[in-house]
Amino acid sequence: MIRFRPLFLAAATAVVALPAVAQNLMIGRANEPQSIDPQFSRTGNNQMTSLHMFDRLVLTDADVRARPGLAVEWTNEDETHWVVRLREGVTFHDGSPFTAADVVYSLERAPNVPNSPASFAGSVANLEASEIIDDHTIRFTTVNPDPLFIENIGTVYIVSQAATEGMENEDFNSGEAAIGTGPYRFVSWAPGDRLELTRNDDYWGDAPAYENVTMRFIANDAARVAALLSDAVDLIDIVPPADLPNLRDNPDITVYDTPTVRLIYLALNQGDDAPGLTDVAGNPLDTNPLQDARVRRAISMMIDRQAIIDRLLYGAGEAASQIVPSGVFGFNPDIAVPPYDPDGARALLAEAGYPDGFGITVYGSNDRFSQDGELTQVLGQFLARGGLTVNGVETLPYAVFSQEAGNNAYGAFVFSYGNSTGEASRGLLSAIHSFDPDNDLGTLNRFRYSNPDFDAAVVAAAQMFDPVEREAALAAAQTLAFEEDTAIVPLYFQALSWASRSSIVYEPRRDERTLAMGARPAAAN
Amino acid sequence: MTALLEVRGLKTHFLTRAGVVKAVDGVDMILQPGEVRGLVGESGSGKSVASFSILGLIDPPGRVVEGELLYKGEDLRTATPERLKQLRGKEIAMIFQDPMMTLTPVLRIETQMVETVRAHERVSAKAARERSVDMLRRVGISAPETRIRAYPHQFSGGMRQRVAIAIALLHNPALILADEPTTALDVTIQGQIIAEMQKLVAETGAAMIWVSHDLAVVETIADTISVMYGGRIVESGPAGRVIGAPAHPYTEGLLNSIPSRTTPGQRLNQIPGMAPSVLNLPPGCAFAPRCRYAHAACGTPPPVLDVGEGRMARCVSPLMMEAAE
Amino acid sequence: MSVAEPRETTPVVTAKPASRWRPVWDEFRESTTAVIALCVCGVLLALALLGPWIAPQDPYDLTAISFFDSRLPPLSSTPDAFYLLGTDNQGRDMLSAMLYGLKTSLFVGVASGVLAIAIGVSLGLVAAYAGGAVDAVIMRVVDFMLGFPTILVALMMLAILGQGIDKVILALVLVQWAYFARAVRATALSERNKEYIEAARSLGLSHGRIVFRHLAPNCMPPVIVIGTMQIASAISAEATLSFLGLGLPITEPSLGLLIANGFNVMLAGLYWISVFPGLLLLTLIFAINIVGDRLREVLNPRNAR
Amino acid sequence: MTAHVTLENVEKVFQKKPDFAERLAIRLGAAPPPAVRAVDDVTLEIAQGEAVGLVGESGCGKSTLGRIVAGIYGKTGGTFAFEGKEEAHWSAEDARRARLDIQMIFQDPMSSLNPRKRVLDIIGEAPVVHGLIPRREQPARVEALMREVGLDPAYARRFPHQFSGGQRQRIGIARALAVEPKFLVCDESVAALDVSIQAQVLNLFMDLREKRGLTYLFISHDLGVIEHLTDRVAIMYLGRLVEVGTTAEIFRDANHPYTQALLEEAPRIGRGRRAYTPLKGEIPSPLNPPPGCHFHTRCPHAMTICKTERPRLKAVAPGRLSACHLNDTTD
Prior knowledge:
By secondary structure, chain A is of the alpha+beta class. Chain A is 28% helix and 24% strand. In chain A, strands 1, 10, 11, 12, 13, 14, 15, 16, 17, 18 and 19 form an eleven-stranded mixed β-sheet that branches. Chain A has a four-stranded antiparallel β-sheet with strand order 5-6-8-7. Chain A has a two-stranded antiparallel ribbon with strand order 2-9. In chain A, 51% of the residues are buried. In chain B, strands 6-7-8-3-9-10-12-11 form an eight-stranded mixed β-sheet, with helices on both faces. A four-stranded antiparallel β-sheet of chain B has the order 2-1-4-5. In chain B, a hairpin with a 2-residue loop joins strand 11 (304-308) and strand 12. Chain B has one domain: P-loop containing nucleotide triphosphate hydrolases (Rossmann fold, 3-Layer(aba) Sandwich), CATH 3.40.50.300. By secondary structure, chain B is α/β, with parallel strands linked by helices. Chain D has helices at residues 20-27, 62-69, 92-101, 119-129, 138-148, 165-177, 195-212, 223-229, 247-252, 257-265, 326-329; strands spanning 3-15, 35-47, 51-55, 77-82, 85-86, 102-105, 183-187, 215-220, 232-237, 240-246, 314-317, 320-322. Chain D is of the alpha/beta class. The two termini of chain D are 31 Å apart. Helices cover 32% and strands 22% of the residues of chain D. Chains in contact: A-C, B-C, B-D, C-D. Chain A binds chain C through residues 221-222, 225-226, 240, 242-243, 245-246, 304, 307, 311-312, 366-367, 371, 373-374, 376-378, 380-382, 384-385, 390, 392-397, 399-400, and chain C through 62-63, 65-68, 70-71, 89-91, 159, 162-163, 245-246, 249-251, 261, 264-270.
């Protein structure tokens, strides 16, 4: 039995008590939403927009820990039945009251939004039935036992049934249907330019510090930095790493960093056909050396992670040993970051029967995350220095690259995985579990790692309701995948930086979201 | 009677990379009011350059380097560009081989003609238009009132040349320079234009220099003929005399080359060799290398001799004098 | 009868030059700027060709470059090496990378130009000579090709074909041939009606012989001019493609790729990674364009004597 | 004399490329596609060894007719026979032979020579390509041809622009002679030359006729040249033959009013200064020729019938054809 009690309402009132000295906040954002409909897409650019105007049953804090949203308490009656109590006294932006009917409606609507590029269907996949007990109580029935059921449906944004029914994408984008319970109200959206919001003074939670918020969409890194330096915006996200040293030296600017949950890793294709792998002379290989865990381990040891973080990212990263960073549920502190040890790598290679190495081509994207193209090249260098024959390094636009990577076309390739649920099982199930698309498992396993022991361990862990037990099981599964098997070569967790005028204090978030609610005026000296 | 135009010692040279091209190298010509002068020569003889030089229409690298150009006693070489422009539009008219040198393709004939009239005279647009219509009628364009509204491309080549002539005559010029005006036209059309020009020159009393390579055409219209060779006039005199009894061996050779002068089927009396390069003229008489009468004395520059009957020949031994001996 | 009497305003100069190209060169060198540009082109070409021998480092060899020497400013030295123009994000010696990149850029430009000329000229000649439906079909394709922005077509091509110098060349040929086809067709249309072509037909020469031996050489002046310009534009197109990440392999940087690599860190003060290759590219394109401009003036049929 | 070349009812229609407005009209059925009947029902025989003149003004179709004879243009109607054999029955070898046997000398001595080839190649290409001589004999052959047309063989390696107009025309003649033709079509071949040079080239034509027994179709607007050079003459007006006869007879006593006008108006040396009584009007557009007799719009003798009925080309005397309704009344 797990009970959540909102303990920090008191703390929240303390924050509200601060005087709101500034009225306007101008945010320079690197990317923009595709729609104002909060259920249109799960991608980060949409969610960080939706969070301003809409609430969810469960919210997450800056460290990606769950906290109550519109749900104030949930209880599991048995393995497949949950009773959720909703927050009372909440009103939508149009003044109508928030009730259980809106929740049921929103959960039904979520999987059925047309043209959605990344649907919320997965979040409600386990929902069998909803039963409204009273205006603020719902009983849910799940398909399978699922300890994370509430966290999952908790990611769905709650819309007003009255304002939304029969409305389409355009109605949200015009503002007509953009009626939520969130801290900000929609004012206007000019795609490609800006989104304007105004504070919801009837908000149930902490009142945000700024009354008027404008988000300007400035995709170009240099332009975004320039906008901040020229005072055109007060806060920017995704600060390019190369600009970090300069911005940190600037007394008018404050930089906020946080390691994110986005893992950058080198995938090693363990399929039988060994695409792109050759012997030293360049002839195709019959057997795939990457199927040997010693070879994968050797490759992991060829890479100097800290050098990459220092030189390529200007320190904006954290060396990785597993799928989630420290502090996230399921992290196993016993798994060490593999040491940079070229000699050890050679020894391991020799042990595996490849004293002279073999030929390999490293692939990567060049527009997906910061420095991805450069990183791919650096990996090529490290592999070459570590004793492999690097036949080539190829970087492509993500659209092309990800498709080819999914088609099993590459032997070694750089990918990233952002763990948004705040615990390890989701990543382990979708990225490391054996490729099994029929059961929705291992769908992101483009490198075909497969260990039945690991599969069994992680599936079992995911269904444990006791958090202590589950965390231990997840840690054990991680040891199997990363310590013993080197399923992938984890490189680093990307750090993310925001920069603001020094008159503003911003709370950086590990989930990469840029929220106006996280900004407040710096205390006047 | 004072001369309308006096040209003395005119030299027009082109400074090219290959050297100095002496296109016109000492031309003298006196034109009386109302006189029609045929200026005849083969390509490269300098006849067109000479006529352009009179109007100051030589573009670099060409330049009038020497000589006197007197129009009604006024020195054209020292005249200001404004004065030249004024003269060109009004008193001295030019007709080119290609009428599109005169006409603008994008404007109606009417616009062009009215503009031309009013450029030099302060008259109303209506009066200018009436004069233009009248002039078109005089050059033989039927229904000029309506056709004046047309654009140049709506006319045939012959008609365009008539329009160009009409524009040239709008101000009753005292002198017309016509550079091969009928060369590009068909025989029957050429006949028409020559007839119109004869009539107009007679009516207005204008003097005219008619530049042509075709002796037969020149003969039909000119009072006097000057024959050019190698940048100089080698013979000039009354048309009938020059054609009937040439004094210079080149004129004789030219006439003998014309097929109709010889019995059909027989070999023509060709002039041997080819015209000299004006870049590198032989010393002495330029025609000497091709001349069947040439002798030692031809190696020095020949004098201009008066051979009587108002005729001049640039030859040490003109044919008529030979005959007289 | 329209018989044109040779005009005399420009006297016929009957000096006998030894070759047809001699006067072209004589006129060309009247422009000091153009001669300097030509010299610059020559020097750059020589540098590109000699690159592998004069470059201090093989920038394509992943074992020769060191990540630990990355982003060193110009005139840096380490115990192992001296970096005159600094190093890039990967630790590549900029000077070496630029010499190799110059070679790549020139190769891409010239190779795609030559191939595009071969294809474009052939099709343009055939279209002009054959006329009718053949002409209509070829020219519709040309119009279609020219209707798209070069870079867009090249981007689409590369997205389909994938990376590699051969594919970049292929993509550039595909977007460039139409320029040549159109230019050649225009010239060929006027040349086709000249009497020497009729004479060749009267002499019973084959169509192929007439097109490629008689028509083609007389349509070349505009091709030479456009070819020069297109080489410059191919080089900049390649640079653009590389800059956008679609051109050449990242380990074998052309000038465009070097610029792209340095672009992100330019504001952070690491100017040399972008600026030096940028200046080199600018010089190269500028020089080629000046030469092309001069050629256009010199080979303009209206200036011909 | 056997008929060397026979043209019967030959016709050539050029489809003019319609402009936008015209295309629209054609689409809507408002207008037929514009066509020029450049050669309209021409029948003409040229005997072996004969020199026939073809005279007319611009746009009359004389150059087109010459190009049909020389095989440069195809015809759109009628028959063409060479040495008694009709084109329709030619074998491939016949066609090749006919093509080479009939050569053309062009008007413009500059544009008729490929500016990028040396004289050696211009003259020597065709005989080598056709296998008339082996390649190694090319220089000797070219040298002989250059001598024959009065050029210095030392200049064989020069380009056309290095020659004067008259010399270029000689190169064109040598090029034609290189394939040993029997028949030369000369299209205004001396029109662009200066009088003194023209005489030289005309003399060359006469020499070649004598030496090689060539047959000529001599196209010119210059009646002096025609009178001097040809045995018979055919006069064309807007695509049609209007009169055919021996040169001497036609120049003495032209039958057709157009021929009379042409002879009257051609400037001829030695007539002195005279007043013209020129033919009235313009040459009608070949795109839209007048009905009936094409000449009736300008003819001083035009009658009603001339406006509706096309006069047939018929014998008015032995060996003398004329297409004029005036001859009808004398029947």
